[in-house]
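Below sits our specimen:

——
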Amino acid sequence: MSRRAEFEAEHPEVHVLSADQAGRVDLVMGAVGWLGDEEQVTTCASLGGESSTVIRVELQELRGGWRTAVLKQSLPWLRRDESVAMPAGRWHGERAFYAEVARVPEAAAHMPRLMAANEARSLLLLEDFRGASNLASLYRGGSFADEAAQSLGAFLRALRHGARGTEESDPVNACMKALNHRLLFEAPFASARAAGDGFGPDGPAPDSAALDATEPGLGEAAAALRSDRAFRAAVSELGSRFLGSGACLVHGAFHPANWLLVPDGGVRVVDPQYGGWGDAEFDIGTGLAHLLLARQPEEVVAAFLSAAVGSEDAEEVESGVDRPLVARYSGVEIVRRLIGGGQLPLEAAELSGPEGGFRCDLLETARTAVVSGRLEVLET
């Protein structure tokens, strides 16, 4: 019996939703009280999402009025591959994140509004941004304005200054933090065979032949990195810190697939299912890593860092951003995306030297960042 079939047998009261079943969506939304008088679901459209079911629902009244909203259902399997288990409690952590960010208006303005939640069915009802598109196009040669990069940095700055917790552990979303730890600090360094089942959404790391097919020399570079004792020790130390508690609210998956470009040119941040308390430097480092992976112009990277980190004057140093820690977190994210299972649709790049190309060069940059805490873009 499949994981989904077992779940449905154990929880007959939970309807597993999909965009091609508008009638079932209407039934469920009515049952939980999310439909107004004389209102019904007319159409549903999938908004993608690999880990959860995300649906845009159009709701129409008999008198002619209409509205849209986003319905998200997070169940204990990966939507893209139902054979892969996902933590059963992740819905609780995501709802908690929205509750916390709502207390920080400067950050909440960059996210959808949580309109309703239903624990029994693992459902969230969220504000819809019609006409928005995610910024995964950045990996394929796209770019965005400096103002959009500044907006993303301002969101992280608002989280850092406005959402303060305690130094106690975060039990609500510990399961997702543990999964994120495996994706970042374990899976990219395991063999393809060893990582085949236990590393969640990313799946196994590519073998040397697959990496070489992506870029000549990348397989050899990956093998050298995995056997580098100083690097592995630095990764282990950073991973232990990551698993610890933290006083800042952290999105946890701050990358272009979760950045939306809205029609007025602004950006919004979605999908905080990995969110919780941790190091503010983790989100900054992750965002920086993806701007470098997507080969964004220096001006865009600088705009993001200026808003997220600030300048190195006395006032900003007191704000508590640890630049070497940003570099280290950025490095592990780059490594994950270059030689781990979380491969990105990066454009092919011409070889930049006799021993390798863009990926090999960036992998070496990431190694230096993890071991020494140095990343050139953070020092300018």
